[in-house]
């Protein structure tokens, strides 16, 4: 057997497994030993429960459709995309939060999220609601690698770190929470300059994880953030409609992010970095919700669905929707579990395509 065939055979086996299950995302177990996550509320599985911030969701109605019907700190009615990705790789069906002291290093060895709701690539974004910066997430990751080595031994830890799939989901808050909401960054940078600044921070973070042994990485692009219910209601130029200025920024940022991915794959030995385009999928769902089994892509399930998120959802439970599966968004910012499942399938298919 040629060395090139040996290299790609595991991914070919996954692909055939995918075909045999009728196109559903089913990945053979054991190909990826862990899912390691950096980012914001789209992938925070509860870290913000353990820090002093109002950017939390560890209360009802969040988690109402989770396994035990209890809130976990996930900004959704159930699981997140990263949870579904973990399950698809034959790993546990939910990824623990690093700051949860109840989780042992053995549990964290198959998956861990360092993410923090309301954070961004820019430290100033994290400062708005006093959450965990990306730099601190990377410091936690270094601490995690040391704990793995102590618990599993140098060789086993190196295997986990080197073969794990790293997922980055971050950047939206830098625009909608920081750049367009506060004056400081707009006074310093044009939007193009700010994009370049953020991409520099993303590059430094990826290089840091690579230096610590990470090789397989997925960087998720921005979604059409102008179509979030909160941004529709805040659209002064065209109230109730998607903010197309924000969507245009998401598209240009994604294009530049893809260029960064290509550059780093060329420069960093052994790096397999992919760009996951979630923009097109969510845009299609928002434009044609019925095609994907949704009734409502304009409002969230919680309250009026136009501005409620976080604690405001807990104040508006009398208006909570009956069936979250009919909604694209659970609150005014975050998707429902059903939408996260669609996003997860999209990311997995992208990953398989690249690694085959």
TrEMBL record:
InterPro entries for this protein: GDSL (IPR001087), GDSL_lipolytic_enzyme (IPR050592), SGNH_hydro_sf (IPR036514), SGNH_plant_lipase-like (IPR035669)
Signal peptide annotation: 1-28
Assigned keywords, A-Z: Signal
Pfam family of the protein (one): Lipase_GDSL
KW Signal (keyword) present: yes
A molecular-function term among this protein's GO annotations: hydrolase activity, acting on ester bonds
PANTHER family to which the protein is assigned, alphabetical: GDSL ESTERASE/LIPASE EXL3, OS09G0132900 PROTEIN
Annotated family: Belongs to the 'GDSL' lipolytic enzyme family.
Name the record gives this protein: GDSL esterase/lipase
